[in-house]
Specification:
Blueprint: H1 6-18, H2 27-39, H3 43-52, H4 55-60, H5 62-76, H6 79-88, H7 96-117, E1 121-122, H8 123-130, H9 135-141, E2 145-147, E3 150-152, H10 166-181
Antiparallel strand pairs: 1-3, 2-3
Helix pairs in contact: 1-2, 2-3, 2-5, 2-7, 3-5, 5-6
Length: 182
């Protein structure tokens, strides 16, 4: 399964859910759609999906409950519990690639957060936010410095993209056309 097609896969799964006999889809469909919503960081749709899954399916399927448990940790921003749940759960091949990508995606988001939000932060906080044990090697990999119990992240620089306003573009186009007419 290619992660680039997740938007289309989610749309297909939503359609399959709507067309399911008696309005109830399979636990595998619900699990995959729930995992995709989490990967897309669409926590609202994930929560609404969880609410519309029949209680009997939730009770019968441990993987559905585990996926939602991961979603709750994301909702509560409990990164320590998130990394524990997503790493220690044995996922079926139906959702395993999505959950692995989710873990990487959340780690990358937290890495960007730490880089841009902190000038210094404790080693324990970095370990908890990024779900890593060896903070020193992670810091070295990203050019951060570690002194004692403190990590000094380096802010990621993003190139500034100059965007002209629509009015300015229209003025330039008008000037260009008038030059061509002369």
């Amino acid at each position: 399964m290619l992660l680039e097609n997740l938007d289309q896969i989610a749309a297909d799964l939503e359609m399959q859910e709507l067309q399911a006999p008696v309005g109830v889809a399979t636990p595998q469909l619900y699990g995959k759609l729930l995992a995709i919503y989490l990967y897309q960081h669409d926590l609202c749709n994930a929560k609404f999906l969880w609410k519309r899954i029949p209680a009997s399916l939730k009770a019968e399927n441990a993987e559905l409950r585990n996926i939602w448990a991961v979603g709750k940790t994301m909702w509560q921003r409990d990164m320590k519990a998130f990394y524990t749940l997503v790493s220690k759960t044995d996922w079926t091949e139906n959702v395993a690639p999505i959950m692995a990508a989710l873990k990487d995606s959340v780690r990358e988001r937290c890495l960007n957060l730490v880089s841009n939000a902190y000038s210094s932060v404790t080693v324990d906080s970095v370990a908890q936010l990024l779900g890593v044990v060896d903070v020193a090697s992670l810091a070295k990999e990203h050019g951060w410095s570690v002194e004692g119990n403190m990590v000094s992240p380096v802010r990621k620089t993003t190139p500034h993209i100059y965007i002209t306003s629509t009015e300015e573009q229209l003025h330039r186009l008008t000037s260009f056309v008038s030059i061509l007419e002369n």
